């Protein structure tokens, strides 16, 4: 159960559609499901607004299937599985796990995607076509977390006019995810044009001296533009999660 589900149930009680006893029954879930190979955190959705995301790499199909089943038993209607290869996705379907697999993103979703409820739009920009896999992971994650997303590809600094032609979209975005390999210059340029936070994602795209994305990572960390945060190499998921948090921020009232 996530925070949205909890709010929906609380409203139903307030409106008389559910009794207080029904509310207690809905909330009577063990905080952790101990599967032996995994401790599934059933209360994370209530605490943070987002239930556990399953990292598929290094897990067997049967382990992933067990985690998805435990989440469903605890009231979680949807699950995101990242870093999932096509063979493992096929095995999950054979095991009866209902998933929609996104091969280029190397990720799968069990259950329906939610309606977008963020404050604005997340804009995903890629420097080149070689960065598409990381972008797809970011886009799927952002949509899974309830965001409206627009993606613009191949607008790297080698042809700056391609990026400038999207200046209107840049100016209207709530959050921007800028994805680049090679020297990683794209986020610096984007942050100089945008009035919103920019999340930089270095990719492992590049020739030998790029060191598998380390050159892009260091370039982004040393950007002279303000308003940039940087995630790990090829971490489209992490960038989208952070972007979603920003896009869902609301003013908080504090008692004095």
Automatic annotation (TrEMBL):
Gene3D superfamilies assigned: 3.40.50.1970
Molecular function via GO: hydrolase activity
Taxonomic superkingdom: Bacteria
Pfam families: AIRC
A biological-process GO annotation: 'de novo' IMP biosynthetic process
Domain PurE residues, every copy: 120-252
Name used for this protein in its record: 1-(5-phosphoribosyl)-5-amino-4-imidazole-carboxylate (AIR) carboxylase
Lineage summary: Bacteria, Bacillati, Actinomycetota, Coriobacteriia, Coriobacteriales
């Amino acid at each position: 159960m996530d925070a949205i589900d909890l709010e929906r149930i609380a409203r139903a009680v307030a409106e008389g559609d559910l009794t207080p006893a029904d509310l207690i029954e809905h909330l009577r879930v063990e905080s952790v499901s101990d599967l032996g190979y995994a401790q599934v955190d059933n209360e994370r959705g209530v605490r943070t607004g987002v239930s556990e995301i399953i990292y598929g790499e290094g897990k067997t199909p049967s382990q992933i299937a067990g985690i998805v089943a435990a989440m469903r038993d605890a009231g979680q209607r949807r699950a995101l599985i990242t870093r999932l290869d096509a063979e493992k996705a096929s095995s999950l379907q054979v095991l009866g796990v209902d998933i929609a697999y996104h091969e280029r993103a190397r990720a799968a979703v069990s259950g329906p995607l939610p309606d977008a409820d963020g404050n604005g739009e997340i804009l995903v920009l890629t420097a080149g076509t070689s960065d598409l896999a990381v972008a797809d992971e970011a886009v799927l994650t952002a949509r899974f977390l309830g965001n409206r997303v627009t993606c613009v590809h191949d607008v790297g600094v080698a042809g700056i006019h391609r990026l400038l032609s999207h200046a209107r979209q840049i100016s209207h975005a709530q959050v921007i995810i800028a994805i680049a390999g090679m020297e990683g210059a794209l986020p610096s340029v984007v942050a100089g044009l945008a009035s919103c936070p920019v999340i930089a994602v270095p990719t492992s795209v590049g020739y030998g001296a790029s060191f598998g994305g380390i050159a892009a990572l260091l370039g982004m960390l040393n950007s002279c533009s303000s308003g940039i945060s940087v995630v790990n190499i090829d971490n489209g998921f992490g960038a989208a999660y952070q972007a979603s948090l920003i896009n869902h921020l609301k003013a908080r009232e504090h008692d004095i």
